[in-house]
Amino acid sequence: MKKPASEFCAAAIRKVIRQIPRGKVATYGQVAAAAGYPLYHRQVVQVLRKAGESLPWQRVLGAGGEIRFKHEMAQEQRVRLEMEGVRFRGGRVDMTGHQHVFRTWEL
DNA sequence: ATCCTGACCCAAG
DNA sequence: GCTTGGGCCAGGA
Which end of chain A has fewer beta carbons closer than 10 Å to its terminal beta carbon, N or C? Predict the structure, then answer.
């Protein structure tokens, strides 16, 4: 995988995100890796921005289970997650037990 | 082509 | 715990 057509990898990323079940979360890096592009965490952001409400964006967090949003959106995300049963410890998500484990990503 | 931006990541100090 | 600097990638001006 060298120069993946952006549409192609974007599709892979969307697919991965849709697999995250309610009550679980994943980091940008994990999503990118699970999609087959370990270094595309920044593209995950692009995809989520464009996808908007058509994807469970609240389940994607920064490294360490931290919300990378600012101000109101950060609150929105936290509320949504707590509503799904995700527990917070301090300013970050308690990853222990909430981190989604992707099954052997497609070969 | 260059410069800047974005919900980033991580090793160092 | 914090900040800094370097590395990553695509898209838009």
Answer: C
Q: Is the CB of A23 under 7 A from strand C?
A: no
Q: What is the pTM of this model?
A: 0.90
CATH number at residue A61: 1.10.10.10
Alpha-carbon distance A85 to A74, whole Å? 17
Instruction: Judge whether residue A41 contacts strand B, using its CB and a 7 Å cut-off.
Output: yes
**A:74-103 Cβ neighbours of strand B under 7 Å:** none
Q: Is residue A55 part of a domain?
A: yes
Contact between A34 and A100 under an 8 Å Cβ cutoff? The reply is no
- Residue type present at position A53: E
Task: Give the model confidence (pLDDT) of A2-56 as tens digits.
Answer: 567 788 899 999 999 999 999 999 999 999 999 999 999 999 999 999 898 999 9
